[in-house]
Amino acid sequence: MDESELHALVDGELSAQRRREVEDHLLAHKEDAALVENWRRQNAALRAAFEPVAQETPPLSLRNAAARNAAALTPPIESGAIHWGRPSSSFRPARRFDEAKGGRDRRALIAAAALLLFTMLAGAALFLAPKVVSGRGGVRPPALSQSYVERADIAYATFAGDLRPAEFDAARKTELLAALLARIGFAYAPDLSSVGLRFMGGRLTPGLLRPAALLFYETAAGERVALYFERAEAEPAALTAPKPEQGLTAVEWRGAGVAFVLIGPLSPDKMQTSAERAAYEIVAPGVSGQ
Amino acid sequence: MGQKEDVFLHLEAATPALRRYARALGVSMGTAAADDLVQTAIGRVAARLRAKELRDAEAVRLAAYQLLTALAREKLCGHPEAGFPPRRSALARGLADLPFEERAALLLVVLEGLSYDATAQVVHTPREAVVMRLMRARAALAPLDLRPSSAPHDGVRRGGAHLRVVK
Fold first, then answer.
1. What ipTM does this complex have?
2. CATH fold group of domain B4-81+88-146
3. Which of A69, A74, A243, A280 is the best substitution to test chain B (most B C-beta atoms within 10 A)?
4. Interior angle at CA A15, CA A11 and CA A20, nearest 5
């Protein structure tokens, strides 16, 4: 018998039938059986020696590497697919934000700066925490303690179950948009009928730092999806990965100086498609592209 | 596109296994250096993910092993066995004495549970060469009297698509 067959036996590379044949061979050939036994012992020794490494908690540097890469990956709407907030888009209330979107490098730099800032602020917060709490009046928190996704999650949990979740229903869309524009400085209710979402209406809701909008859409099956948006010109992204409630998927993106979150109970793929549609509608309203 | 985060999560979940492999492959280089390699490899895989070169979880896993192997090769072949601590187990010394390519093949198959084909892909070699390296590595380690130092660990192996029962 070829020795490679014995290795293949040890490594589980044989078909069931061939495996039986090789095992039969081992019964009759003690020296081959001893080889196989020796290799199996080697395997066990190797695994026993190095398995503890895999059971350890990875060092901080590696956990950071994972988190950093997650941060770099999470803007779920890739600028390659949707050119949100690009200079040529028809409306852009916040010039500053457009400039900040110069490119990936730029964004990475901003992320790094935000991380540094956060570290410094976290240190400062240890000393200043009592003061910040007591002086809450109109003082804006220096870094976002919550993400827009969490905020959208709470707003969704609060209103989505209501019989009438919207303050202004679909028939009063003009009124809704006027109210949102006055309070938020941005108002747009994208038409998502192409992805099977019917506009139900919307409302003003408390945002992270300012008033925010919560627009509701409904699928034919009655599932409610909400589009949350809030002006967000220079705020750094939240540093913890947002975790929407179980069963909900949230997609976050930025554009034209506004933070958007689409949240709902649909499948992640469906949510992604809907969010892309919404982002597209907002950047290039009325253009029926796909 | 919706699966992108899942793919990333897979990379994160693979980190402990990558550390295990790096530690065994760079058995002579020490913990910190091995972790540095893992960190660099993860960064490069993430870059490839962003460039959309990797489609599914398995591709991510293999790419991570591939990059890690290449980094270790570069590092170890630069300054071979620098300052290897003398008091190490027979197994560690046996591993360190293996030629790099044989050690990589052995560890990918045995420790990481990769198939011969996957291993061949990771080290850019025909499958037959992988088998040859495996045979040579095992032959070199055979004289060592290796006994598992503790109870069989297979029950707790993680992430093994290819768990094998060791009798």
1. 0.81
2. Butyryl-CoA Dehydrogenase, subunit A; domain 3 (1.20.140)
3. A69
4. 90
